[in-house]
Every structure is written in structure tokens, then in C-alpha cells.
Amino acid sequence: MATQTQTQTTTPDAPSKVVGSIATRASYEPLSRNNALDAHEHHSVTPHIGEEFPNVQLSSLLRSPDADKLIADLAVLVSERGVAFFRAQDLSLEDQKTLGRKLGELSGKPAESGLHIHPTTHAGAKKGDEISVISSETFDSYSANDRSLLASEGWHSDITFEPVPSDYAILKVHTSPETGGDTLWASAYEAYSRLSPTFREFLEGKKAVHEAKFFERVAQARGHTLRDEVRGHPANAGAELSAVHPIVRVNPVTGWKGLYVNPAFTRRILGVTRDESDLLLNHLYALVSRNHDLQVRFNWTTYSPESGLGDIAIWDNRSTFHTATQDYGRTLRVGDRVVSLGEKPYYSKDGKERRAALGLGPAAAERNLGQIALQLHGVKIAE
Ligand SMILES: [Fe+2]
After folding, report:
1. I need a labelling partner for 32 at 20 to 30 A (CA). Which of 153, 165, 215, 356 fits?
2. How many domains does the chain have?
3. pLDDT in tens, 333-348
4. For residue 34, how far is the Cα from the chain centroid?
């Protein structure tokens, strides 16, 4: 387990913030958009999560004279909107890695945080250490018989078992079925907003253990060994694959609070009994999987293999969850993913609720509209 020493850092114009002593940022002041991207058409896919750019080639963005300004704006936009979609992209693997690095660098990530090497990536893999090949061919049979058939079990944020987990991820799917294989994302900010103030107060500051020892069996099933060397940050090393993180996390780019637990990697909330931990985690997972109004679903376009094209999704792993949809039988679905590492997750009471920051009003107010509708139909609502 990662050792966690807490330190207090103070900046002249910001209140004191408690952050981890490893992988700290130079600044914890939220960033604003520079709006450079507004020269390109884009629109919200849903009110709470997802932004689509119908006419942008990311390869051109990278080569623009204003590349750094555009990518800095993209980083803030992705952190605010959770995930951004780009159709028919010709981005090369090298450019995908460059973009992955720059998103974090231009939004203030710690200097020592690089691109992640996944513990199951084969040493000597054709595409290199920093590309995770997401393929239906490597879906592992080691646990197939014991897998839940509830698709909602798949919700996760990438690599939360690492002491220094991901800020941004970029996935290009170049081979996809004619129908099916969609990916869904959910907003961790909005899931947090669905908690009452009383329950938020109870949860904030508490921590949970994240763990992924099962990857050792995955590596074995693929005929190689787990990568126990440094995986993109000096703190991410060894075969233990576990870390302790706050269950409410502040995204430093937006300054907004979000839930940071997921059924794939979170094992236990600390400071409560096993039963209480299960109860709490199940409720938090339900907020993500049962609220389709904080999710966005993306269908990957099918391209010919010769085109080199693929749709691309870029998301902020600090403040979103995602899950694939395995509804396409034995059809091939393959993509290349780059996962960038950010800062050590932290909680700060100075973090904001996204809805309050955007002046949206509480989530419960939207639910109360249902009560008004009932009253309009003559149904009396008890006080
Ligand atoms: Fe993932």
C-alpha cells in the first residue's frame, strides 16, 4: 500500500489545502478556459456531460501555430465537460502520445508524471509501453465463468489502483462493429451533486482502498508477467497494485468535487465496518449506474481498416466513470489508448460543487418539478 504522508501547503492568495506529499502540483488554483477552441464548432451532447467537435482534426490542432493555447483550452474543456468526442480522426500513435502528455503539462500536472505503462502491457509490445491496446480479442477467459451479467458492473475510472492515477485518457477506436460496442461515460461531479449536504459532510475526508491484484492473473493468462517496474511515475511501481484515495476528490483544473470510487477497483472505505463500507459503496455506485441523466453514450463509427481513421474520445479520469458495452458477440473491436498521469488525488474543503459553481441550482430542485407536476394533476403532496 502506498505510504501517505500529509503535508500542508499554503499559497499567498489561496486558503490552506491538504494534499499528498507525492505528485503535487505547483498550483492548486482552478484554471479558466482561454476559449481558443471556440473558433471551432462544438456542442454539448447532454446538459451534464459530453462535448462533440464535428469538424476538428486533432492532428491539425497539434500542428497549429497556436497549438499550446488550443490544447490548454481543450484540457480545461475536457475537465469541465468530462469527455470530448472527435469523429474520423487521422491522429498517429506518436501524436496521440504527444497530445496525452501536453494535456496534463499545459494544465499544470506534476513534472514527474508521465504516460502510464499498464501493468498488463507486454514488455516489448509492438506499439510500445505507453499504448494500451483495448481489444475484444484479449477479453480474458480467466474469470468468464464468474463474471456478473449486470452490465452496470463495468463502470470504472482508469487505473485508480495506482498511487498517482490518471488525469486524461485518449482512446482511438479504429476497428468497431457495425452496431454495438458503445462506450458510456458518467459525471462524477453530478453523482456528487446527487448527495444530500448531510451525506456529503459524512463522506468528505474519508478514504478508500483501491486494488487490482487480479491483473496478475490477467498477465499470466496472456502468457507474460506483470509489469512491476516504474509505470509512468516513481510512486507507481511494484506488484502490489493498491492505493488509498479520498472518496470525494477535487479536480484541480476546475476546483470541483466529484465521487472517486468505482466497482472495478475500490475495495473498502476506511474507518467504517465492512458492512457499512459495502452499504455506502453500493449506494455511491447506484448514483452512477442508475442515473442515466448524468451519463453520455457514444457509438464508434465503423471505418475501413485502410483508412487509418478512428473516432477519438478524450476524458478526464479524475471526474468521470466509463464502461464499455459488450453486446457485439465475436466481432472485432480494437482501439489504442493513452493514459496520462496527473497528481496525487486530494480532498479540500475549498472544492466547489459543480452545480453551485455554474449557478445551476441543486439537483433536488429538478426532482421537485415532479412534485409540482403531481400537484398540477390534483395529487396532494404531504409536507
Ligand atoms: Fe477504462
Report:
1. 165
2. 1
3. 999 999 999 999 999 9
4. 23
